Amino acid sequence: MALSITKACIACFACKEVCPKGAVSSAGNNFSIIEHRCDECESLGKGPQCAQICPVETAIVDAKGQAFNPPGSLTGLPQDPNVIAFSS
Ligand code: SF4
Ligand code: SF4
Q1: Ligand 1, closest atom to CA 44?
Q2: 62 C-beta closer than 6 A to ligand 1
Q3: Which among 81, 82, 8 is positioned nearest to 51, based on CA atoms?
Q4: What topology does CATH give the domain 1-88?
Q5: Is there an atom of ligand 1 within 6 Å of 21 CB?
Q6: Atom of ligand 1 nearest to the CA of 49
Q7: Which residue has the higher pLDDT, 79 or 87?
Q8: Where are the chain's structural domains?
Q9: C-alpha of residue 38 to centroid of ligand 2, in Å
Q10: Which of 4, 28, 47, 76 is such that its CA lies 20 to 30 A from the CA of 15?
Q11: Are 5 and 32 a contacting pair, CB within 8 Å?
């Protein structure tokens, strides 16, 4: 099992820095996870380090395509993309 990086990625390099397996690959601004290297951080026992540090919702997903940081989980903003939140 391995995680994947989606097109939501902003190429911040954070996941590449923390991955204990050297499983994050980058070619320019295109980031991906090398499947055979990724053990979903089972050896650490602290959960996927890449997903925990990633600042972008939906950028890292599991094998089923489920985002570790789903819409609204980091920003607290509404999930409906047509809704614009204003602060006073
Ligand atoms: S889950 Fe762990 S091993 Fe897999 S890419 Fe992320 S940081 Fe690396
Ligand atoms: S931490 Fe998230 S946004 Fe940054 S490079 Fe990795 S997947 Fe992309």
Answers
A1: 2
A2: no
A3: 8
A4: Alpha-Beta Plaits (3.30.70)
A5: yes
A6: 7
A7: 79
A8: 1-88
A9: 15
A10: 76
A11: yes
